[in-house]
Amino acid sequence: MTAPALPVTTEPRKQPMNRWRGWLLDRAPFLVACLMLSVIVAIYGALQKGVFTLDEINLDTAAAMTLILAATGQTIVLIRGGIDLSIGGMISLGTVIAATQFTGDPLNVAMWSALILALGFAVGAVNGLLITALKLQPFLVTLASWSILNGVAMLILPTDGGSVPGWWIGFSYNLILGLASPVWMLIGLIVFWYWFRATRLGITIQATGSNEKSAFLSGVSITRINIITYGLSGLFAAAAALYLTTQTGAGSPTIGKDYILPSVAAAVIGGVSLFGGRGHLLGTVIGALILTLIGNLVFVLRVSSYWQPVMSGVILLVAVLASSLAEKTARGQEQ
Amino acid sequence: MDLIEVSGLTKRYGGIVALSEAQFSARAGEVHALIGENGAGKSTFIQVLLGAVHRDSGKVALEGQPYLPINPNAAQALGVAAVFQELSLIPDLTVEQNIWFRHEPRNLIGMVDRREMRRKTLELFAKYHFPSLDPSRELRRLTLAERQIAEIAKGLAKAPRILILDEATSALPAKEAEWLLALTRQLAAEGRLVIFISHRMGEIRAIADRLTIFRNGKTVAVHEAGAVSDDEIVTQMIGRHLDRLYPERIATATSRAALRVRNFGSGSRLSGIDFDLREGEVLGVGGLQGHGQRELFQALFGASRSTGTLELWGKPTTIRNPRQALTGRDGIALVPEDRRGQGLLLAKSVRENLTLSVIRRFSSNGLLDNKREAALVREMVDFLRIKAGTPEQLAGTLSGGNQQKVIFGKMLLTQARVLLLYDPTRGVDVGTKGEIFQLMRDLAAKGYAILFYSSDLPELVHVADRVLVLQNGRVAALLEGDRISEEGILRAAVLETEAA
Question: Which of B54, B94, B136, B141 to mutate to test the interface with A (most CBs of A within 10 A)?
């Protein structure tokens, strides 16, 4: 016996217009972020010569790259529905290990870089394990591990200092086809993202952030997902630390805290939901560029540098407002 | 040999025994109904089969082999899948991503092969004659019925040997429910075992080969479906004889309008609504699902914006938000559709849930009067016969029927006298259904005015004094007296409006 075909549904058909609007609304936060970036770039370009050149792109990307790397890890954790404050500690620790251990020998640098990255993943994995096994709030667990990592960094190098090889510092000045290595890193990161979000792991992380109970009932191991998610965040924090040493040339046991909240802000400005399940790295990159370029803007406007956090705050508010409005409108349409 | 054999299954949650020496066995190729009141242990039983909950003691054998899934993943691997009543879907994934979640076809570099996934989805839809559903839509954009259909597809995608349907029809409109019943027979004919859980006796009659009845965590009877009467089943389910499901309909309506609604509308889905809800009346709201019923209830409660005029007990009012609706004596209260999401705080106690929206009544100078609160809570728990160990028990641990009673209690404590009941018996067992109908009639007799929507037509026919039928967001008919029948409601719901 087979089921009879069912010709109609009883739902009144929705107009195709709604789908188009729905598509736009879904991306409203991202589009608003793009708009804000364009405005900032336009003002910057009007006041400063040579903004629309390859050189400027190379410089700005190099300046934003630490934040972009840190925010990439944060984006993955946010999509999982968590938050990772420990990246601040990991970034500090990474820079002091590099600045105290790197010699001029490329082999030595490669080995210690690999160790720092592995340490980053391991620390994150422990975060993930603690969050799941002890059923603790991600906020508190990562706050604690931030403090611990910070302390360890202080023990290794109490004040800013140490050094890295000269060729290491020159990393972001290497040009390939006119583009500096940070730009190539960024391209690689975006390619990675398009791959990652379409893998089973990427989808599972998103699903777990969207509805943990449903994901569990579908057979997802929450422990495994948390270990991987926070592990990746730690890994990207370690990468941010390594990159940071190419910019500063030294280690700093306190520098990491400057990236904790901006990494969350960059993601949220780019449309990543703090409640999990939604977000895209492209948005986070736009967010990180906005936060970085505000610094340039303050410079060319010749106003006090204290305007920078004020502007960041206003932009964050606009972004949050945009996503909240889009959410409400979308929901109103569904009901 | 039976495909699955369960004996002596026991599971406790703290002091509460969910399953006590339960027995169950079923063959491949049969539709086996599992019935019992809410709280009888069916949900726990399913959770154990799915590996989501671990039993305290007892044996489960699958094809004669011990069956001990440590998690839902292990159960799936052994061919046991479920279609849940509380949907197990992911809101931010699309329909097809949900269907194939964790089983996605992949290409060489580990990315999901979207073309293949679409092909498999359409193949699955065609094989089982699915109602039309766009595979690329995100789940959170779907209606409850569409989500239920997606959930069914997800269960089928695993081609399970045992498929558990947990009240899968309760969220479906009539046509889709019929489709699901035919589908169930098709699955059995393919040699699968379908464990079918439903509170609708008609459905069980239509498709079950055998049925097992649970009560208080124990197996009380196993029947061949043809060899037992409805009356016997209900008696065994509730452990006593239920005189009748529907209370006697005594007309208690006065001529006074509690709520006068004129040219009322909301958004694009509801417009030009006129009706009077009288004091002491149960006014039913019918029509096909998705024709404005939900919008009407939400708008009257102030949960969404509305246009038009309202008179509450003779006074013109505008209701902009639920707080306004609930304000003062004689206000408007709503029992929402999604009781877990909208009505109850599952992690709070019965007491806290009951008094949440009326907390000001027990406080003076900012301090809570605990005694007064406790007295009112006890009164309400007794009045509604809420089965909870203590008022401090968490709402989330109650059975569905008892959760619904807590929501009723919460609503009654607000002192509202216009009650909007949106599908109050959805997923509620027969015994509790009867109690809810009786309660509605009792409240009407006390002068409450009740607007009542149900997705189950016979409920409207037997409980409502009059029935307002909606079609495309407008009033298609207002049925009274003899004109209230299943056929009458359906006719008004689907035919062109007579007086256009």
Answer: B141
Yes or no: say if A260 and A139 are a contact pair by the CB < 8 Å rule. Answer: no
CB atoms within 10 A of CB B10: 17
Counting one residue from chain A and one from chain B, the pairs whose CB atoms sit within 8 A come to: 121
Among left, alpha and beta (phi > 0; psi -120 to 50; other), residue A319 is alpha
Tell me if ipTM is over 0.85. no
The confidence score (pLDDT) of residue B86 equals 65
On the question of pLDDT at B79 being above 50, the answer is yes
- Give the predicted TM-score (pTM) of the model: 0.70
List every span in chain B annotated with CATH 3.40.50.300: 4-238, 257-494
Q: What does the alpha-carbon distance between residue B123 and residue B189 come to, in Å, rounded to a whole number?
A: 19
pLDDT tens-digit readout, B404-438: 888 888 888 888 889 999 988 877 777 788 888 98
Per DSSP (E only), the strands in B36-132 are 57-62, 65-66, 80-83
- Is A216 within 8 Å of B89 when comparing Cβ atoms? no
> Where do runs of H (alpha helix) occur along B67-220?
72-77, 95-99, 114-127, 144-157, 174-189, 201-207
**Residue ranges of the domains in chain A?**
53-326
Query: Domain B4-238 belongs to what architecture?
Result: 3-Layer(aba) Sandwich (3.40)
Fold of A53-326: ABC transporter involved in vitamin B12 uptake, BtuC (1.10.3470)
Q: For the domain made up of B257-494, give the CATH fold.
A: Rossmann fold (3.40.50)
Q: What confidence score (pLDDT) does residue B243 get?
A: 60
Does residue A8 have a pLDDT over 50? no
